[in-house]
Structures are given as structure tokens and as C-alpha cells.
Design brief:
Elements: E1 11-15, H1 37-47, E2 52-55, H2 60-66, E3 73-76, E4 81-84, E5 87-89, H3 97-110, E6 117-120, E7 125-128, H4 134-151, E8 155-160, E9 163-168, H5 173-180, E10 190-195, H6 198-209, E11 213-217, E12 226-228, H7 231-242
Parallel strand pairs: 1-2, 1-10, 2-3, 10-11, 11-12
Antiparallel strand pairs: 3-4, 4-5, 6-7, 7-9, 8-9
The chain binds ligand L263DTV3.
GO molecular function: trehalose-phosphatase activity
Keywords: Hydrolase, Magnesium, Metal-binding
Organism: Methylorubrum zatmanii
Length: 255
């Protein structure tokens, strides 16, 4: 439904970052943001009455750096932190002393595997093995699994694309989308969530349950109902919606 100015009132759009808005790169800091993306996201946010948020495993500050000068609503660290209308909550490293000790252990135990990267995000941590030799990748995965196990039930292991992350157990992208949906401008709108990874499957399930529309980007088994082939297709869709094309996610190809 749209008003005379073309604003769409029916949908709220939630977007994963890596593998959805941008192509996967060899290292977390090597991601390239298409120059047309940010202006299109800003126009689309306006069209959706502000109901557009990034839902990512990255910290909010990192998303700001990639998408500057814009500042979007963001759920960062898989929902551990959330910024709505400029107000940031959650994600304080000092609230996670056990995790901090776990990060030290990860550094110590992976030090001999040169191409294994530790991405310390304060209130969560990722161990990356994309650039590692197969044997080293296996060792890195075993280490992050052991550290996550030893941290106990307050934390969970989140496996993704050549990465294992340790995240506070209470946070998921599904919870983050539901939290956004409790207040304006998101409340009362039908959620659309686009994501590409195992971490996004949790949110696809809850979005489906709540009557929203889940869209898997790329290949792989999924509980999502719709599919787009690549981040390039996602950006083309965002550009079209930003320019006024009808926002009708039910017409996207089935998953
Ligand atoms: O929730 P997302 O926005 O999809 O973030 C998930 C993780 O993405 C990043 O790692 C992945 O992308 C990197 C850059 O393309 C790639 O090098 C890596 O292999 C992928 O796993 C990011 O570094 C993590 O912090 C995010 O949690």
C-alpha cells in the first residue's frame, strides 16, 4: 500500500550484510561496497517510512564504516547490539569477562596457524579459516568448537561461511527482527528478511512463523520461501524498489 508521495506502509525490510548486500571477500576487511548501494538504501528507507534495518554479525561501528556517510538502524553481532533511531543498546565487551578469556585462549591456540584470523568484536568473536590450508582450517574449527563448549550455556557457536563465531546465547537475528518489530516505524508491518548464511536460517524460521517473507541469497538448503541468486541481484532489487517499482516480494522466485 502506498500514499500519494509513494511511501510504502505495508513492509519492513531487514537486510543481512556479508553475502547479501556485498559479495564475500577473502578477508573481513576486504569487502567492497558498490557505490550505488548506499544512496539506493537511503531512498528505499524513505519509501518504507524508515522501516529498513541491517541485521548482521558485524559490529554496528563496522557497518557504519562500510556504509558511510549513512547511518542505518542496525542489529549487530547477530543481535547482541541494536541501534534504532540513533540509540545503541547492548554489545559491551566488559559485560562478557568469560568470553574475553575465551578470546585470549583462541589467540594462543590458533597462533601457529598463520592464515587463521581472529576477528575480535568485543561481545562476540569470529575465527576465520577461509585463507587457511585444509588441515589448518580443520584445526581452527576444532579449537573454536572446544572454546565455545567450555564457555558453557551462556554462549553458542555460530558456524558460517569458513567461520566459527562465539556469540552470547540469548542473541539471534530472529530475536533482533522481533525486537525491531515491536516499535515504530517497524510495528504493524510485514517483515521481509534477506540473508545468505546459516546464521540467517534462524531468522528465516521466525520470520516465516510471524507471517513475513524470507529470502535466501545464493545456493544451499534453506527454510526461506524465496530466493535470489547473488548480492548483485539483491542490489538490483533494492535499486528498483528505491526507484518506485512495486514492492511485491511474493513475486520473487521460490526457494
Ligand atoms: O551476518 P552477516 O552480515 O552475513 O555477517 C556474517 C559474518 O560475515 C563476515 O564474515 C564473512 O564475510 C567475510 C567477508 O566477505 C569473509 O571473509 C568470511 O569468510 C565470511 O565468513 C564477518 O567477518 C563476520 O564478522 C560476520 O559475523
Amino acid at each position: 500500500m502506498s500514499d500519494a508521495a509513494g511511501h510504502q506502509s505495508g513492509y519492513a525490510l531487514f537486510l543481512d550484510f556479508d553475502g547479501t548486500l556485498v559479495e564475500i571477500a577473502p578477508r573481513p576487511d576486504a569487502v567492497q561496497v558498490d557505490p550505488t548501494l548506499v544512496p539506493a538504501l537511503e531512498r528505499l528507507r524513505d519509501r518504507l517510512g524508515g522501516a529498513l534495518a541491517i541485521v548482521t554479525g558485524r559490529p554496528v561501528t563496522v557497518i557504519d564504516a562500510f556504509l558511510k556517510p549513512a547511518r542505518f538502524d542496525v542489529a549487530g553481532l547477530h543481535g547482541v547490539e541494536r541501534r534504532v533511531d540513533g540509540n545503541l543498546t547492548g554489545g559491551r565487551a566488559e559485560d562478557h569477562p568469560d568470553l574475553r578469556a575465551g578470546v585470549e585462549r583462541l589467540h594462543a591456540e590458533t597462533a601457529r596457524y598463520e592464515a587463521v584470523l581472529i576477528e575480535d568484536k568485543g561481545a562476540s568473536v569470529a575465527v576465520h579459516w577461509r585463507l587457511a590450508a585444509p588441515g589448518d582450517a580443520q584445526a581452527a574449527e576444532a579449537i573454536v568448537k572446544a572454546v565455545a563448549h567450555d564457555l558453557g550455556s551462556a554462549y553458542r557457536l555460530q558456524l558460517g561461511k569458513a567461520v566459527g563465531e562465539i556469540v552470547p546465547a540469548s542473541a539471534t537475528k530472529g530475536h533482533a527482527i522481533r525486537a525491531f518489530s515491536e516499535a515504530a516505524p517497524y510495528a504493524g508491518r510485514r517483515a521481509i528478511f534477506l540473508g545468505d548464511d546459516r546464521t540467517d536460517e534462524i531468522a528465516f524460521a521466525s520470520v516465516n512463523e510471524d507471517g513475513g517473507i524470507s529470502v535466501r541469497v545464493g545456493e544451499g538448503e534453506t527454510v526461506a520461501r524465496r530466493r535470489l541468486a547473488s548480492p548483485a541481484e539483491v542490489r538490483a532489487l533494492i535499486a528498483a524498489w528505491a526507484e518506485g517499482a512495486p514492492i511485491d516480494p511474493e513475486t520473487l522466485p521460490p526457494a
